[in-house]
TrEMBL record, chains A, B:
SUPFAM superfamilies recorded: Winged helix' DNA-binding domain (SSF46785)
NCBIfam families reported in the protein's UniProt record: HTH_metalloreg
A Pfam short name: HTH_20
Protein name (record): Metalloregulator ArsR/SmtB family transcription factor
Amino acid sequence: MSDEAVDRLFHALADATRRDILRRCVRGGMSVSRLSEAYPMSFAAVQKHVAVLERAGLVTKQRRGREQLVRTDPDAVGRARQALDELETAWRGRVDRMSRLLAEDPEKSDPTEGPD
Amino acid sequence: MSDEAVDRLFHALADATRRDILRRCVRGGMSVSRLSEAYPMSFAAVQKHVAVLERAGLVTKQRRGREQLVRTDPDAVGRARQALDELETAWRGRVDRMSRLLAEDPEKSDPTEGPD
DNA sequence: CTAACGTACAACCAAATGGTTGTAGATGGG
DNA sequence: CCCATCTACAACCATTTGGTTGTACGTTAG
């Protein structure tokens, strides 16, 4: 997963309204206007939240007549969990050879020699 | 975990620089100025990123002389994972534990026989 | 003591975020 | 067809975010 994808994923999750939308849309069948009745904000504001979730890959939209049905992607949490796993794996794998990397300047980084 | 705590947690994770700081500080012993040498930005900017991570409970700081050593909280990822679990648990409660299972295996549409 | 280092923090700025209202385009019902 | 509904999107505004620079303060080295 790219850095930007992880950015979008965690950013989308970092808002209580959006997390609530995710919970409400697991069953699908929720139109955006129906959703917007649940929150103390305008239809357009909810539309924007849904757009953020969609760009993050957390929900999908499906047309039914003039309505747009929102559905939480069942694998959404799995992907977020994987992003956390990659974070954790990265640091565990790096731990033993970290000290050299830390001491170096990005400018004059020469992997063949280093403090030890 | 409160909504605000989850907000702070995911917001802190939604930035590539901050995720990199987490990776670099697992071993501890990194001063903020040492850290700031690794990024193309000012010391003050890195200081702010560390503050965001600290408010989210992802790192702790410890004084050593005039330095401030940053260390990633070993339980940090665990807490993020728990936040995801709570999200998912809320789904299950609302869904009556059916739709996700059905989506995976349309064949086993008998809930009395499903796993779990 | 003085100088250099590491940190803290304030002031400032551009861009993004989260909200609003208004307008316009599809779609379905009578 | 006409109208109400649902959606899309633009323009606008206040606040936050992510960066900068500058200044002040504590600590260590000489």
